[in-house]
Every structure is written in structure tokens, then in C-alpha cells.
Design goal:
alpha/beta, 6-stranded parallel sheet, 27 strands, 30% strand
Amino acid sequence: MAKVIMVQGTMSNAGKSLLTAGLCRIFKQDGYRVAPFKSQNMALNSFITEDGLEMGRAQVMQAEAAGIAPSVDMNPILLKPTTDVGSQVIVCGEVLGNMKAREYFAYKKKLIPDIMEAFHRLEEKYDIIVIEGAGSPAEINLKQDDIVNMGMAKLAKAPVLLVGDIDRGGVFAQLIGTVMLLEEEERKMVKGLIINKFRGDKTILDPGVKMLEERAGIPVVGVAPYLNVQVEDEDSLTDRFEVHRQAAAIDLAVIRLPRISNFTDFNPFEAIDGVSLRYVGSVRELGTPDMILLPGSKSTISDLLWLRQSGLEAAIKKAEAAGTVIFGICGGYQMLGQRISDPEGTESGGEVAGIGLLPMETVFETEKTRTRVHGTFGEVQGALSDLSGVSFTGYEIHMGVSTLKEGAVSLTGLTEESHPERREAKRGSKPDGASYGSVYGTYVHGIFDCAEMTKAVVTALGRKKGLDVSELHSVDFAEFKEQQYDLLAAGLREHLDMKKIYEILEEGI
């Protein structure tokens, strides 16, 4: 059976996801078969596996670092917030239903068998499992029914590394306070402390580290620096939204919807020199970008109404009339149509007029589409005609069915789908997207991950501006991510006591 180690944090955004990914990469480099695991993840960024099941993207990122295909066994419970007090509950890749927070807290212990079945399947296949916690294990109002921090550590018999974030201040109080609030049995499970996101001269920190070890009675197994690596982060904690980049030669603006989901679709553009990717939440921030991107949304109708109320809808229409390229994905694609209807009350019920830039209507249904797709663009018209004949791959997660109206041009040619109900692929042509003038939309997430796709978009936008963008080299995003995982592992190897961490792994609890 696999050896197990768990990464918990003193708070959200302490760096658990990144450290888990880094450890996965290190163990992989050292020749072990390693897998990540998080019993319960709350995120709007999700992914569809090859067998058509839904999981959180954080564990997908960690699986990539481990060099393995993502599986829902790595994230058996995914909560996708629909309101401030409720979420869609996804168990083992399938939608269980929508629950209010109090309802879910009363129910979640019934999911322990599902969690442990997934965990045991991983135990049988891998040498090492790196488990990630969530938030803090010292939330005393939640501890009794915990299934993701110390509750999970007990179930998995996992020694714990506790991580504190020095960048946000008070790291010694974070670590000591967390340890003090744990039960005696739980404190014994914490085998190492990690100070994360350190900047500066470590010798100044050393006296505090010594005192921390004395007071906690737990060794500090590393002071990890603030690492400048570009890997996916938790959607609710990302700082990407707060970075106000200056417009570059090619300027892209992503509309920051209140319930934005799968914004990772646009990460590949961040790796291209000469291209700026800005997240904007107001008309004032929008400026005059070369392309406006409308992302996915967990609450499409309410986010569309927000666009209308904020003035951004009018600004998008004005930009389109001036020739700006508009591109929507999933919920953003639906918003660009003429009408969205929700007869079954899948979201809020009723119907609402869309932005009206694509001749298309969408009707929400209760059954979620979950599929991976591979295909080729058909004859693309307008500013992005360079996409014609370009191959793409990605996945769909949506509740609506869209019907193209007269004037809309289907974006895709031949597509191949993989469904959970039938493991074989289904080939054929289906409207994965549409275009009309300079407006484009698709249901396919991950469509920009292909270097040929991003190159075609950037080249077309440059030509439209009369710029020579031949020096702007697109990157193979998969290769770029591999480089980033190696940089992450190298940075952690230098600053973590891996010998001690291996000892903790071997000894267990």
C-alpha cells in the first residue's frame, strides 16, 4: 500500500496546493509513482476527465506535476458555489444536487465511504499519496464534522506537514496558534512545520525558527521562498485578478464576472511576451483592448444581469461596433446570444435577453453536459480567419443547449466526443461554437492550450492592428507547464529538508 503524507495550512492561501504539487514533482523525479488527493475541494474551476467525469482543476494541476492522468479519485467531492450560502455538490465526478451550506454540513459525513473508496483505489496504484487539506484544521466550529483536514488525516493515517504564510504576516502566531487549537491526538500527527513565501535574508529569521521549534515541539522542515513560478492556483484565492498589467502590443481583456469559472482557459496567453492579459471588472478598467474575452460562469443569468447593470454590456457592444474582436467561452458564449431561457429553474428560472451579438438562443436543461472533445475549426470568417483548419482539444461543462439562428456560422468542422456513458468516441459534426462578424463563441474549455491556436489568434489580432507580430513566439503550453513544475521542484528541494520529509513519510503515524 502507498505511503502517505498530508499538507495542511494555517489558513487559506498558505500555499498548500503549490507545495502539494511541488512534492508530487519531487517524488516523481525520485522515481516514485505518486498521486495527489484532496477529499473535498471548493472551486468554480473544474475539469472533465477522459471518462467524462468532473473534478477540481487544482488536483489536475497536481496530477500534471506528478506526471499522471487526472482522475476523480484524486478529488472525490467538488463543491461549486452557486450562491453565497449554497453549492452544487459533485461526488465522484457526478452531480449529486444543489445544497445550502447548513444542509451540506449535516450531510457530508455520509460521503466518507465515497472518499475512502477513492483513496483506497489510489493506494493500490501508487507508491506515495500527497494529500492536501483545505483552509485551516483549527476551525473549531467545523472540527466535529471535518472530512478534509485532521478528519482526513486520521482516516488515511497520514503524518501532517503544517504550512504557514509569512508573506501575510504573523507566521509564528499562525503556526503556534494552530498547533495549540488542535486536540492532543491531532498535535501528535503534525510532524513538521513549513514557513512559506519567505522573502529576504533567512539568517534574520533563524532565531524565530528556533523559538518556534522549542514552543511547538515540532521541527521546522523548511523555509520556502516566494517562488516565481506560473502554475494554476485556486480560483477563489488567485491574485491574477488584482494584477493591473499595462497594455502590451496585443492587449486582451477578460471580463471578471462575479461568478467567473474556468478562467484558466486564458492562462496560455500569459506566457507570450508582447501580449497582456488583463482582468477587468468595470467600464473604467476596460480601455480599448484588441480582444474582449467573456469567460465561463457558474451563474450565467445573474452574471449577465450584472454585466447589464455595470455598464459593461453596453461597453462590449460599443467595442464590437468599432471592430473589436469578442470571444466568449461556455457561459460567456451563452451570454453573447439573443436569449437565455431557464424553464426548469436550473439557475434562477425565467428567461432573459442576451447581449445579442450572436444569432443564437440557449435553453438551460437539468442534465449537465460533460464531455471531452477533439476537433478542427471549419471555415472561420472575419478577423480570426487564421483559425480555419486549426485542430483543437478541450472539454465541455455546461447545463444549456444552444441553437444557432440564421446568420450564425458554426465554428467547428469534425469533432470527436468522449462521454461517460459510452467509453468509445462519437465522431460527427456538432455546433461547439459560432461566429458572426467579429464575434466568436464556443463551449470548449482549454481551447487556447494549443500553441497553434494562440499563435493564430495573436497573428490575426496583430495583422488587424497593422503590427508585425512575427517576433511574438507562441509557446507549447504543455511544455511550458512542465518547465514550471521542474522549477517548482528545484526551488523546494533547495529550501526544504527532503531527508527529514522522507523520514516522516516512512515513519507514518
